[in-house]
Amino acid sequence: MPLSIYSRIALACSALAMLALAGIVAAETLAKSKLTPASNMNLPDYLVPVIDPDTGATIVRVTTPGPLGAGLACQRAYCTHRYSSAQAWNADQSLLLIANGCNGLCFLDGQTYAPLFRRQREDECEWHPRDPDRMICVIGRKISLWTPRTNAEEVVLIAEGYRGLQFGPGKGNPSRDGRRIAVRGTRADGAVVAFAFDLVSRQKFPDIEVGKLPGRDGVCEISALGNYVRCSRWVDGKDEAFIFTVAGDLVQSWTEHHRPSHGDMTVDSDGREVYVGISKSDPDIYHVIKRRLDDGVVTALAPRGEASHASTRAIHQPGWVFLSYGGDPAEIAQLPTFAQFAREVIALRIDGSGEFRRIAYTRNVPHNYWSETHASPSPDGSQVIWSSNWGVAGGPVFDFVTRLDRPGQTSALSR
User: Fold this and answer.
1) Are strands 72-74 and 298-302 parallel, antiparallel or unpaired?
2) Which element (helix H / strand E) includes 187?
3) Is the alpha carbon torsion for 263, 235, 254, 352 positive or negative?
4) Which positions make up the signal peptide (predicted)?
5) Which residues are registered as beta bridge partners of 127?
6) Cα 407 to Cα 374: distance, rounded to the nearest angstrom
7) Backbone angles phi, psi at 159, to 5 degrees
8) Separation between Cα atoms, residue 327 and residue 137, nearest integer Å
9) Given 197, 232, 254, which residue is the final one in a domain?
10) Among candidate residues 389, 394, 412, 393, the one with its CA nearest the CA of residue 402
11) H or E element, residue 95
12) Do 288 and 374 belong to one domain?
């Protein structure tokens, strides 16, 4: 009897573990890196695992236009996870969320990627990083804990005197332990404010009057340890950032444009909370940098290049950032001082050592926002989801998962 698709996935992942142990998923350093364009490769069939000839890693295409089964259906243009800095898998990696271009919030099996069920929500919802059953949701005056499998909901705050609460918006995440979040909204007196909220103690922290900051509204998000709230503002065409304590005290004003942005927050090896992303200002324009939240000190992690998004959603591997690179390999080949990556995903240590691992060649060509790669790792770093139009500008944008190890084993990053 022929093997089922899911049996083939399991066998392929077992084979990958052997390859990883043999050094296929091996560490390199930026100083010695060379541009290695992707080999020609046909678009993988839906849910059929294949080995990437350039990395030795197993990749699985997990979305396809049209009906997927179990009531889930993808539109033709794109069907993808939400964003690079959004946690795509739940805490135990039993569920994987496809949020863009699907007919609702579409939940897949987190290991086989089989379609399971869908839900309709108007809230902004993000996975709880420790409770695999629940998501944290924000809408209107309400903050709640929602269980997607059963559709049960526990309201933890009705914020009297506020309206239009938003989780970010768009880039909200809880603290690494899932205890604190930051929301932005409008107070009864019309003031635009942000505040931190503790989901366990049900404590609301003081208002931060972000509406009094220069410029127009951006994103407000809690730091990895829940000590700071970072709020961005658009000021005279620049994306600036302001760092507050949860008590509302201003700690830092980052008035350079996007220094950094398109990134994520984590904890450094010395226990300091940092934001890792791409700088768009001198003296490190288009470098990947990390910036400490408490004092603003910047460390360059990767040279100027075509990195577009950074994710630290591998929260159990806090020493790593997952970078999505765009660019044209032919152009990068003519720029030896640039980071030697194009149309690929890498994992980079954030300690400044330059150690990295190649994750995936995306074979993705630029077209529009929805065709951007937006790579996001699972909490333990054993899987990475990323998007690609597979070389067809304007063609369907699919989601793919690269497996770095067998389900339930530690990530290849820890070796």
Assistant:
1) unpaired
2) strand 180-187
3) positive
4) 1-22
5) 135
6) 22
7) -85, 90
8) 35
9) 254
10) 412
11) strand 95-98
12) yes
By the 8 A CB rule, do 325 and 339 touch?
A: yes
C-alpha to C-alpha distance for 9 and 14, rounded to whole angstroms: 9
Q: Which of 345, 358, 278, 350 is nearest to 23 (CA)?
A: 358
Separation between Cα atoms, residue 390 and residue 307, nearest integer Å = 18
- Cα dihedral 351, 353, 359, 365, rounded to 10, equals 100
| Residue finishing a domain among 254, 288, 320 | 254
Contact 345, 386 (CB under 8 A): yes
Query: Which phi and psi angles does 286 have, rounded to 5°?
Result: 65, 15
* Residue-range definition of the domain harbouring residue 227: 121-254
Provide the whole-model pTM. Answer: 0.92
Q: Which two tokens stand for residue 327?
A: 């660019």
Which spans in 262-311 are helix H?
none
Q: Please identify which residue in the block is written with the tokens 């008590």.
A: 247
Whether 249 and 326 share a structural domain: no
Q: What is the CATH number of the domain that holds 142?
A: 2.130.10.10
Q: Determine phi and psi for 92, rounding to 5 degrees.
A: -100, 10
Residue 324 CA from chain centroid, whole number: 10
Residues 200 and 282 in one domain: no
pLDDT of res. 24:
37
Please tell me the total number of residues recorded for the chain in this structure. 415
- Pull the structure tokens for residue 197: 């909220």
| Strand, helix or coil for residue 178 | coil
List residues bridging with 231 in a β-sheet: 220, 242
Listed as ranges, residues in the chain with pLDDT below 50 are 1-24, 406-409
For 368, the token pair is 């529009």
**Residue 189 burial (CB < 10 Å; 0-12/13-18/19+)?**
exposed
Question: Which pLDDT value is given to residue 83?
Answer: 97
Q: How far apart are CA 234 and CA 218, in angstroms?
A: 7
